[in-house]
Amino acid sequence: MLKIMYALIPYEDFAQCHGLKQLCEKSFRNFRILKVHFIAETDTGVIFSALLSDNNQNTQPLEITLLNTRIKHVAKKKYPVNPDPRSVKSLNRFIRKLNNRSITDKNWKQFIDSKKSIISQYQI
Question: What is d(CA 69, CA 34) in angstroms, rounded to the nearest whole number?
């Protein structure tokens, strides 16, 4: 099952890990970090989101400290509104939305909370 994590890396540890992309394919609290997305910089460090998987086999543990980590379980989006049967465009939109309701490694960024709400939680 895929989950989304929000965390803050202090600048000291950020320099040690040589960028956010280096966090991929590491394990954190029995989760495997699949992908990482930059959110913002603050006075204390860098805020990012990451896609996590339950499968953490054959991965190295993360050796840096992450502050204020939150792991979010993503539920399916609600069922889309029924299409207008006379419109092909409406039917295509309905099918696209229907296929895009659950989280995958390709569409995970649409399930990230808004940048404004994430930053507000990390303001000290």
Answer: 16
Q: Is the pTM of this model over 0.85?
A: no
Looking at residue 29, the DSSP 8-state letter turns out to be T
CA-to-CA separations, 27 to 16, 21, 77, in angstroms, rounded: 17, 14, 27
Distances (CA, A) of 104 to 27, 35, 111: 19, 11, 10
> Measured between alpha carbons, how far is 108 from 37 in angstroms, rounded to an integer?
10
User: What is the structure's pLDDT at 77?
Assistant: 81
Q: First vs last Cα of the chain: how many Å apart?
A: 32
Q: What percent helix, strand, coil does the chain show, rounded to 5?
A: 30, 35, 40
Residue 87 per-residue DSSP state:
-
